[in-house]
Amino acid sequence: MPVTTSSNTPFQFPDGFVWGASTAAYQIEGAAGEDGKGPSIWDTFVRRPGAVRDGHTGDVACDHYHRLDEDVALMRRLGLDAYRFSLSWPRILPTGAGKVEPRGLDFYDRLVDALLGAGIEPTPTLFHWDLPQALEDEGGWLNRETAYRFGEYAAVVAERLGDRVTRWITLNEPFVHMSFGYGFGVHAPGRALMLDALPVAHHQLLGHGLASAALRADVPGARVLVANNCTPVRLRSDARRTEDAAAASAYDVLHNRLFNDPLLLGRYPDLTAYGMTDPSWGGVVRDGDLDTIGAPLDGLGVNYYNPTWVTAPADPAGGLPFDLAEPEEAYERSAFGWPVVPDGLTELLTGLASRYGGALPPVWITENGCSQPAGLRDRARIDYLAGHIGAIARAVAEGVDVRGYFTWSLLDNFEWAEGYHQRFGLVEVDFATGLRTPRASFEWYRELIASQRSHRSQLSQRS
Asked: Is the distance from CB of 303 to CB of 230 less than 8 angstroms?
């Protein structure tokens, strides 16, 4: 049976399409400081007055560290083909390097075994923003050495889990970590460096390349992806032609091409709009780095939430060559206030295929979802998911090779600077008691996955 959106329009996905859900370590695990876990930059940042709404922390979060079996049972009930989670670097290497904490590896060992026992493919992400604080104290991602420590961390994890895990994601949303964490200071580590944060982009990508090499060296048949947050860039209809088009191009370079071009084309885009004319970025980019970064990917992870509207800057001397704008159209909004634009995902996917052609590897939607008010009858979330899954199907019909979809998120969780005020989960979490209660969207997604499995079975029988 084909997938059906809320408008009852049928869509067909390729045989073998993977249905999954995503989470991240700091957002769900809790157990801060337990079993030898070292502090991360988020453990530090949440204690900065005013950094997180209402002073919320991830100290307990969803308590996934102690509720692993319960959560895997929910995933089995949901019928997931795969589960994307992140590993906590400071849980495994408390200071980011050197001595390994075996209890941290034991936890992920148990998680991987539980997932495989439930028929779910584990898809770990090595870095989802929780850098060990000890490495931040040495400069964090501004320090080139962090990229080498990341490669060493990947080797430690591969040695322990690589006999059972083959699909790996190195980085999650390096653009967001650079801009929010180091550029504007609204996420950990809370540095507000503006364009001086650009070395963070290169060092994360170098870390990706080094980690990829380590994974491929230690894991037979390793499939390596990176999860980039991508956005189609749009202009308002009242845009001032030449200046606004230049602003849109500049924003596209910063948000999308800065992180996709070196991975897929082996080079950085033109950064002259940001005052960067030296291809070495003042010595940041060294000989051989782009070869390491540009080693072929087995897939490109795409995290999509909404398009970005821009205009020319009101103050061209203000530092950035664009201003962010609100759309003219009266789009529906999520509880986060983000516009709900499913066709933006089709636009994004077909745009990637057009821009990169044969250099684009298979695409995986590694995050897509929306925050909605608390409650179990979340029809708006169902409509959101249906609309975006339909958008993927349209891109597939236009020839884009999309292999899987991981919705964000399995559980309500700690939503970074918003604390517990934004709820993205298919499963509602009572943060006072830890009680998990599946929402209507959980059942809708379960039925969708089951219908796909039934369709696969029918095709197999016919063949």
From this structure: yes
The pLDDT of residue 319 is 85
Beta bridge pairs of residue 437: 428
Catalytic residue among 101, 367, 415, 428: 367
From the list 101, 121, 136, 173, the catalytic residue is 173
Place of tokens 């050197």: 98
**113 three-class SS:** helix
SS3 label, residue 346? helix
pTM of the model: 0.96
Range of the domain at 299: 3-462
C-alpha distances in angstroms, 390 versus 17, 83, 344? 14, 21, 12
Question: Which residues have a Cβ under 8 Å from the Cβ of 429 and sit 6 or more positions away?
Answer: 62, 411, 412, 413, 435, 436
Distance CA 213, CA 208 (A): 9
Cβ(133)–Cβ(190) below 8 Å: no
Entry field: residues in the chain: 463
Helix, strand, coil % over all residues of the chain, rounded to 5: 45, 15, 40
What CATH number did the domain enclosing 171 receive?
3.20.20.80
Task: Give how far Cα 128 sits from Cα of 102, 401, 439, Å.
Answer: 21, 25, 26
Cα–Cα distance measured from residue 253 to residue 136, given in angstroms and rounded to the nearest whole number:
27
Q: What total of structural domains would you count in the chain?
A: 1
Query: Angle, to 10 degrees, between the axis of helix 68-78 and the axis of helix 102-117?
Result: 30
DSSP code at position 410 = S
**Packing angle between helix 145-161 and helix 198-218, nearest 10 degrees?**
30
Q: What is the pLDDT of residues 147-193, one digit of tens each?
A: 999 999 999 999 999 999 999 999 999 999 999 999 999 999 999 99
Angstrom CA distances, 294 to 79, 228, 297, stand at 35, 15, 8
Nearest Cα to 168, choosing from 85, 93, 110? 85
Task: Look up 173 and say whether it is catalytic.
Answer: yes
DSSP code at position 162: T
Nearest 5 degrees, angle CA 49-CA 55-CA 56? Answer: 145
C-alpha span between 457 and 463 (Å, rounded): 10
Strand partners, 408: 22
Query: Which residue ranges in the chain fall short of pLDDT 70?
Result: 1-10, 237-240, 455-463
Q: What are the residues whose beta carbons fall under 8 Å from the beta carbon of 141, sequence distance 6 or more?
A: 131, 147, 177, 178, 182, 199, 200, 203, 204, 207
Q: Is residue 367 among the annotated active site residues?
A: yes
Strand, coil or helix: 26 = helix
Q: How far apart are CA 331 and CA 293, in angstroms?
A: 38
Cβ proximity of 382 and 442 under 8 Å: no
